[in-house]
Structures are given as structure tokens and as C-alpha cells.
Specification:
598 residues; Leucine-rich Repeat Variant; 0% strand; cytoskeleton; coiled coil; IQ_motif_EF-hand-BS; repeat
């Protein structure tokens, strides 16, 4: 859509371009330069003129002219250099409107690529030129093209990445001529000063190519201008990007760069930049820069985090105060309880200590009184008996402790064993029931009816077997006796099997009883925890065993209650004889576990 209020000068140039032949178009487009130069920079009128030029496709005409062969253009390099200025000025500050995508994605990259291609052509013509005047003129045109490209990149920094990755730019950077090389290096320095961040966004190969060429020019070119520009360029890249500094210092490609830079001549114009670059490449400076960068990043992170935490605490301050008071009160209560508990423990320890001292004193007094009573000849024996009794008591307590410990350790395994036995018993009962059912229903299963052919086949097999295994002749009397013996043995077997079945049932009942007793013992409390009639549950079911236990208990009590002088001549292993008439064992009134009282 054509804009309204178009400048008549632009309309006349557009009409003239449309009507004129192709060879006259470049000269007609040069009239745009006069219009742009007359208009003040930064004014709204200049923006309107640029929009009119773009809307009437005059910028596209300039691109088409620049892409043609320079020998076919009227005016040669003079016209081309002026057209590059017109194109760069028109593209910078232009607002394309609806065609923004085409303008930014196609037209601008194409214009930058055309500028680089024109620079390569000028470089080739400059190298082939023989006269000095011609070289100066071509160098002037090359400077105009590079300035136009720099102006375009200054207005559209997104094109810097495309320019740095372009093959034409790398060819221009590799120029051996001093004037061309210095101009390209200055342009690269100016580009990086505009936006050096695009240097890390280009490909790895392009970045290495640029670094290699700059370092090569620094060491191989005798021109101080190029060496100074290369030094400043390397210094700018190293100071701007920490990654490039690390690459120059640690990469194997630039292993001896610092030593070569240190050997360069001092006292030159760029000696200060050279010293700065050597200092940056030194390990200490690089480490300090890295540490400083990490320190700044850490400080920034800490500042953000502390600010966030402070704001969060300020929001929670009322509830925090309440929680602090609550925690203080609870802590104070806990401290008071702890102090009271410690006092109670100390009092308890003191009481126990007094009880132990009192008991020890009473024990020693008792021992002294007993020693006064004992005959002097029996003192040593009395001491030996006391030592033996003490050793037995210690052994008894130790064995009890060890057995209880082992029992608690084996309790889980005993529980698992009991569960396994229970499962096996249930499985065996189930299998026995299934076998019994099979036996019950086996008699009702009739045999499969034989066919005539099967009967004939079986009869033939029996006859064949009889022919192959002829037996000895046996009389009827012998056969009857043999039959009677077989019947007798069969009857004896069935009678014995019934007895075995009853014995097996008895064994199973005993095993079940033993399993129940083991389960009760495992779940039984200790003697200290037993209360009421719990000990009576573990009385023996056998009358002789109960009578023997009762007799042994009464005997032990009788022996303990006897005076000490009756036990002086006894040994520790001797049995105690008590008359039967002194034992009051009434078996009719003795409770037997598992039986009813008479």
C-alpha cells in the first residue's frame, strides 16, 4: 500500500527509474543522496522520506544494482560507493511497517552480504592495480564501503553475527596488504565496541578463524599499524569476554602466546596495550579475574537471597513473635521439669546409696556375730562354704542372664519355627483329608468296560506270558496252604495297621500338647512380672512329677530352715535326707494342672 503525502521528488525519481533503461538506473538513484543530505538528521521529514523510498522499492533497486558487475555500471566504483552510502543511510532509522519480517530477515542480511562482496572485489582490484593513484582511489572507495557497512551495523546490531560468520569477511580479514588489512581490523574493532556479545554467539570455527588471523597479523606483519590494531583488538576481546581469555590461556592452539607476546619490542606505540594483554594472559591475573567474577556473582546471589529472606521474615514477624514466646515458655517449662527430674534422681541415688551402706553394715555385723559363734577350727571351712555359695549365686545369676538374653535373641526364630510347624501341620492335615476322600470314593469308581477286541488282545497277552514263563506244577493242597498263609498274613497286617494308626494319633496329640506348652512358655512373663494365679498355669500334668517336685521343694525348705550347726559337716554336693514322716504330701489334695479336683 502506497503512503499518502509522498514527496514529489521521490515520485519523480521512482517514475524515472521505471521508464529509464537499465544502464541509466544507477545514475538516477544517485539523486537520492542529494535529497537525504539536504534533509536534517533525526527529523520526522527524513523518516518520511526513507519510508517513501522503501515503499517505492528504490532500496531494492539499489540492492539489484550493487549485485551487478561493476564494469557494467555507469560511473564505476564512484557510483557504487555512493549507492552503498545511500543504501546504508536509508536502512538505518527506517520503520518498514507491515513488511517488517521481509525487511529484517531478507533485505538487511542481503545488503550486508553485498557490502562484504563489494569489499572483496575492491580488494582484488587494489591488489591488481599497478599505479599508485589508482591504488589510492580504490582504497578510498574501500573505506567508503566499510564505513557504509559500519553505519548499517550500528543501526542494526543483529547483523553483526551474520557479518562475523560470513566467508567474505574472513577473506577480507586475511588480506596481506597493509592498508586493506588495517581498514578491516579497524572495522572489526569498531564492530566489537558496538556489541561484543555477538562474538560468542558465532560458530566455534568462525571464532577460531578470527582469533588465528588476528594473532597471525600481530606476529607476522612488520607494519606497526596492523600490529597495534591487532593488539588492541585482542585486548578488547579478552577484556570483554572471560571465555575468550580462558580460551587464549588454556587452549593448546595458543599455548605459547604469552611467551611470544613477552618477547615483543618495548617502547612502541602499543607497548602499554601489549603489557596489559600479557598481564591478562598471566595465570595469576586470570585466576584473580575468575575469582573476582565468582565473588561478584556470589555477592549478587547473596544480596537477592538476603533481601528475599528479609522480606519474608518481615511478613511473618507477628506470628514469629508469638511462636518465639511460645517456644521460650515451653523451653522454660522443660528446663524446670529437667531440674526437678535431676533433683529426684539425685535424691533416689542418695537413698539407694544409704540403703546399700546400711545393708552392707548389717551384713558385716551378721558375719562378725556368726564368726563369734563358729568354732575356731571350723572358720576356714565356713569361709570356703561361703565362697562356694557366693560363686554359685554369681554363676546362677550370670547363667540366668545369659539364657534370658539368648532366649530373647532366639524368640523371633522360635516364632518362625512355630509358624512353619503350624503351616506344615495344616498342610499335612489337608493332604491326609484329600487322600482319605480319594480312598472313600475309589470304590465307587467303576472300571472302564472292555470291548471284545480288547478282551481278545488281553487274553492273547496272558497266553503269551504263560508260554514264556512256565511255572512248576503245584498240587491243590499246596495251593490251599499257600492261600491260607497269605490270608493269615493279610489279617495280621490289617490288625497291626489299626494299632499303628492309634499310636500315630497318640503321638500327634502329644506333639500338639508340646507345641501348646512351648507357645505358653514363649508368651509367659518373667517371675518378677507374674501375678495372681499365673504360675499355677505351668504346673505339671503328671502326678509323679508333681509329687517329686513337691517333695524336693519341701526338702529344700527344711534344709534352709535348719540351724547352721547341723550343716557344718555336710558337703556342697551331698543329698539331703529327710524322713518320710516329716513330709506332709497329700496327693489327694495336690492340684494337678489340667485335671479336675476329686
Amino acid at each position: 500500500m502506497k503512503p499518502t503525502g509522498t514527496d514529489p521528488r521521490i515520485l519523480s525519481i521512482a517514475a524515472e527509474v521505471a521508464k529509464s533503461p537499465e544502464q541509466n538506473v544507477p545514475v538516477i538513484l544517485l539523486k537520492l543522496k542529494e535529497i537525504i543530505n539536504i534533509t536534517p538528521l533525526g527529523s520526522s521529514e527524513l523518516k518520511k522520506i526513507k519510508q517513501d523510498i522503501y515503499c517505492y522499492d528504490l532500496i531494492q533497486y539499489c540492492l539489484l544494482v550493487l549485485s551487478q558487475d561493476c564494469s557494467r555500471i555507469q560511473g564505476g566504483w564512484t557510483t557504487i560507493s555512493q549507492l552503498t552510502q545511500i543504501l546504508s543511510h536509508c536502512c538505518v532509522g527506517l520503520e518498514p511497517g507491515e513488511d517488517a519480517e521481509e525487511f529484517y530477515n531478507e533485505l538487511l542480511p542481503s545488503a550486508a552480504e553485498n557490502f562484504l562482496f563489494l569489499g572483496r572485489q575492491l580488494q582484488t582490484c587494489f591488489i591488481n592495480a599497478a599505479k599508485a593513484e589508482e591504488k589510492d582511489e580504490l582504497l578510498h572507495f574501500f573505506q567508503i564501503v566499510t564505513d557504509s557497512l559500519f553505519w548499517l551495523l550500528g543501526g542494526h546490531v543483529e547483523l553483526i553475527q551474520n557479518v562475523l560468520q560470513s566467508d567474505h569477511f574472513l577473506h577480507l580479514l586475511q588480506a596481506d596488504n597493509v592498508q586493506i588489512g588495517s581498514a578491516v581490523m579497524m572495522m572489526l574493532q569498531n564492530i566489537l565496541q558496538i556489541n561484543s556479545g555477538d562474538l560468542l554467539r558465532i560458530g566455534r570455527k568462525a571464532l577460531y578463524s578470527i582469533l588465528d588471523e588476528v594473532i597471525f597479523k600481530l606476529f607476522s606483519t612488520p607494519s606497526p599499524v596492523i600490529r597495534s590494531t591487532a593488539t588492541k583488538l585482542l585486548l578488547l576481546m579478552a577484556e570483554s569476554h572471560q571465555e575468550i581469555l580462558i580460551l587464549l590461556r588454556q587452549s593448546t592452539c595458543y599455548k605459547g602466546l604469552r611467551s611470544l607476546l613477552s618477547k615483543q619490542e618495548t617502547g612502541t606505540e602499543f607497548s602499554q596495550e601489549l603489557r596489559q594483554l600479557v598481564g591478562l594472559l598471566s595465570p595469576t591475573v586470570c585466576q584473580e579475574v575468575e575469582e573476582q567474577k565468582l565473588h561478584q556473582a556470589a555477592c549478587l546471589i547473596q544480596a537477592y537471597w538476603k533481601g528475599f529472606q528479609t522480606r519474608k521474615r518481615l511478613k511473618k514477624l507477628p506470628s514469629a513473635v508469638i511462636a518465639l514466646q511460645r517456644s521460650f515458655r515451653s523451653k522454660r517449662i522443660k528446663m524446670l521439669l529437667e531440674i526437678n527430674r535431676q533433683k529426684e534422681e539425685e535424691d533416689l541415688k542418695l537413698r539407694l546409696q544409704l540403703q546399700r551402706q546400711r545393708a552392707m553394715r548389717l551384713s558385716r555385723e551378721l558375719r562378725l556375730s556368726m564368726l563369734e559363734i563358729v568354732h575356731p577350727g571350723q572358720v576356714e571351712k565356713h569361709y570356703r562354704e561361703m565362697e562356694e555359695k557366693s560363686a554359685l549365686i554369681i554363676q546362677k545369676h550370670w547363667r540366668g542372664y545369659r539364657e534370658r538374653k539368648n532366649f530373647h535373641q532366639q524368640r523371633q526364630s522360635l516364632t518362625e519355627y512355630k509358624a512353619a510347624v503350624t503351616l506344615q501341620r495344616a498342610a499335612l492335615k489337608f493332604l491326609a483329608k484329600c487322600h482319605k476322600k480319594k480312598k472313600l470314593f475309589a470304590s465307587w469308581r467303576g472300571l472302564q468296560e472292555l470291548t471284545d477286541a480288547r478282551r481278545v488282545e488281553l487274553k492273547q497277552q496272558v497266553d503269551d506270558y504263560v508260554r514264556r514263563h512256565l511255572g512248576s506244577p503245584m498240587s491243590d493242597v499246596v495251593s490251599r496252604e499257600l492261600h491260607a498263609q497269605a490270608q493269615e498274613r493279610l489279617q495280621h497286617y490289617f490288625m497291626g495297621r489299626a494299632v499303628e494308626e492309634r499310636a500315630q494319633q497318640h503321638r500327634e496329640a502329644l506333639m500338639a500338647q508340646i507345641s501348646t506348652n512351648v507357645e505358653q512358655l514363649m508368651k509367659a512373663p518373667s517371675l518378677k512380672e507374674a501375678e495372681g494365679k499365673e504360675p499355677e498355669l505351668f504346673l505339671s500334668r503328671s502326678r509323679p512329677v508333681a509329687a517329686k517336685a513337691k517333695q524336693a521343694h519341701l526338702t529344700t525348705l527344711k534344709h534352709i530352715q535348719a540351724p547352721w550347726w547341723k550343716k557344718l559337716g555336710e558337703e556342697s554336693g551331698d543329698e539331703i535326707d529327710v524322713p518320710k514322716d516329716e513330709l506332709s504330701v497329700e496327693l489327694e489334695t495336690l492340684f494337678i494342672g489340667g485335671t479336675k479336683p476329686p
